[in-house]
Amino acid sequence: MAANAVTLSILDLCPVPQGSTPAQALHNSLALAQHAESIGYKRFWVAEHHNMTGIASAATSVVMGYLAGGTERIRIGSGGIMLPNHAPLQIAEQFGTLESLYPGRIDLGLGRAPGTDPATAQALRRGRADGEDFPHMLDELRRLFAQPQPGQRLRAVPGAGLDVPIWLLGSSTFSAQLAGRLGLPFAFAGQFSPDYMLAALRTYRENFEPSAQLDQPHAMLGINAYVADSRDEAHHLATSHQQAFLNLMRGQPGPLPPPVADIETLWQPHERHSVLSTLAGTLVGEPATVAQQISDLLERTEVQELIVNSSIYDQPLRRQSYTLLMQAMREL
Predict the structure, then answer these.
(1) E strands along the chain, which residues?
(2) What is the spatial distance between Cα 307 and Cα 101, in angstroms, rounded to a whole number?
(3) What is the Cα–Cα distance from 310 to 41, expressed in whole angstroms?
(4) Which residues does the UniProt record annotate as the domain Luciferase-like (predicted)?
């Protein structure tokens, strides 16, 4: 696929920088969404995570309403809603409401992971199996979005009969196979699961069956990106995300740290290997270097869209990174 046919989108976790608040993080996300809209990004998705002091997007559908209300054209979506945490009727009603208020702009990305630690998952799910009933819940949700049938007693109001595109999200081959079999678009979490990337995309395409929503496979790849005027500055910006993941590995999650001059002093060799392996799906450098990285990535994956997470501490530099990334994309 030609690079100029591939679209760019943003995945935002509403990161809370050290010294800031969740309220400010949400305002930062709206400012970023408005900036993304102004420079041509296609989608702005927010992710459901719970009990994490560095992430402010737990009430994902509420955050989406805030973002949609503050923008005009960019598609707003979930990347994703962790469906086993919710009753399908609630999600149908919430996203039916969003689609009614902001028609033609809402995406529903669904995952089956808890988006949190086991204790918090138990508090959310009240003993339900960890994603085992995801296919059944997905089927129930899709029926609620369908046109109501005569005599149907249970309806999502609003929601029934509305066109809310459903995406399946995954970090392995399970959702890839399911998305293909159901003819749904698939988004792979390459930003933290690069080892399964090619296998999941291949599984999706091999199992794809045309549906009313899609007549051919449509894949989106999640990546991290840190783009600056120089290679050294870009790598410096990336150290915030690396520290955050290192803290998570150590069981000490928290707000997004500021970048550091020498991250090598902060981790042990085995920690360094684990962090860099997990975050290997990252574009980093000045625009020319990143443009080549994008070209190589698209040649390997043949995806139709890239959705980018940039956990950058300084908000103006965060917006600049996304601007430079879009410029790099347009130069391919």
Answers:
(1) 7-12, 43-46, 75-82, 106-111, 166-170, 186-188, 219-227, 282-285, 305-309
(2) 24
(3) 14
(4) 16-301
Q: Is the pLDDT of residue 126 over 80?
A: no
Rounded distance between C-alpha atoms, residue 305 and residue 308, angstroms: 10
What CATH number did the domain enclosing 110 receive? 3.20.20.30
Model confidence at 149, pLDDT cuts 50, 70, 90, reads confident
Q: Which domain holds residue 226?
A: 3-330
Cβ contact 301:204 at 8 Å: no
- Strand ranges (DSSP E) for 164-271? 166-170, 186-188, 219-227
Question: Could you report the per-residue pLDDT of 9-35, keeping only the tens digit for each?
Answer: 999 999 999 999 999 999 999 999 999
Distance of alpha carbon 40 from alpha carbon 287, whole angstroms: 17
Report the C-alpha dihedral over residues 235, 239, 240, 241, rounded to 10 degrees.
Answer: 90
Backbone angles phi, psi at 46, to 5 degrees: -120, 150
Query: Sorting pLDDT into bands at 50, 70 and 90, what band is 114?
Result: confident
State in Å, rounded, how far the first CA of the chain is from the last one. 12
Average pLDDT over residues 118-122: 79
Instruction: List the one residue out of 253, 228, 243 whose CA is nearest residue 328.
Output: 228
Q: How far apart are CA 148 and CA 88, in angstroms?
A: 16
Backbone angles phi, psi at 132, to 5 degrees: -65, -30
Is the alpha carbon torsion for 292, 296, 301, 303 positive or negative?
positive
pLDDT, mean over the chain: 94
- C-alpha 78/C-alpha 293 separation (Å) is 26
Give tens-digit pLDDT for 199-211: 999 999 999 999 9
pLDDT at 247 over 80: yes
Helices (H) and strands (E) in the chain, counts: 11, 9
DSSP per residue over 49-82, as a string?
Answer: --S-TTB--SSHHHHHHHHHHT-SSSEEEEEEEE
pLDDT tops 60 at residue 220: yes
**Radius of gyration (C-alpha) of the chain in whole angstroms:** 19
Number of domains within the chain: 1
Average pLDDT over residues 88-106: 98
